[in-house]
Design a protein that fits this description.
Protein name: Cytochrome c domain-containing protein
Keywords: Signal
InterPro entries: Cyt_c-like_dom_sf (IPR036909)
Helix content: 40-55%
Strand content: under 5%
GO molecular function, one term: electron transfer activity
Distance between the termini: 67 Å
Length: 116
C-alpha cells in the first residue's frame, strides 16, 4: 500500500510539473486583429507608448498624436523599423513593444492604413 501511495505521489508530481508551462508576455497577450484600424488598435498602442515623448508639447519629432502623423511616420520616418529594433536600440527606449503590438502596427500598414 505504501508503494502505491509513493507511485501515485510521484505520478501526480510529474503531471503537475508537465502541466506548468512558462509563457512570455507576447504569447498570452491579445491576438492581432485581422484588420487592425488606427482608431480601434494602433491609436491606443501609440498613445500608451509614444505620445508622452513624440508630441508637440514635448517637442520630440516625429509627432505621433494624429492618424496622419503616425501614417507619415510609418511611410517616411522609419517607424516600423524603430519599433521592431531590439530593446535599447529602437523605440520606445525603455523596452521594446510586445510582438503582438508590433504585428498590429505592421498589419495596419500592410492593409492600407485603415482609419476606422
Amino acid at each position: 500500500m505504501k508503494t502505491v501511495k509513493i507511485i501515485l505521489a510521484i505520478a501526480g508530481g510529474v503531471a503537475a510539473i508537465a502541466a506548468c508551462t512558462s509563457n512570455t508576455y507576447e504569447e498570452v497577450s491579445a491576438p492581432v486583429s485581422a484588420n487592425p484600424t488606427y482608431q480601434a488598435d494602433v491609436k491606443n498602442i501609440i498613445n500608451a507608448n509614444c505620445v508622452s515623448c513624440h508630441s508637440e508639447s514635448f517637442g520630440q519629432t516625429p509627432y505621433l498624436e494624429t492618424y496622419d502623423q503616425v501614417k507619415n511616420a510609418v511611410l517616411s520616418n522609419g517607424l516600423l523599423d524603430e519599433i521592431a529594433a531590439p530593446s535599447g536600440e529602437g523605440m520606445p527606449e525603455a523596452q521594446r513593444l510586445p510582438q503582438s503590438q508590433i504585428d498590429a502596427i505592421n498589419l495596419w500598414a500592410a492593409n492600407g492604413f485603415l482609419n476606422q
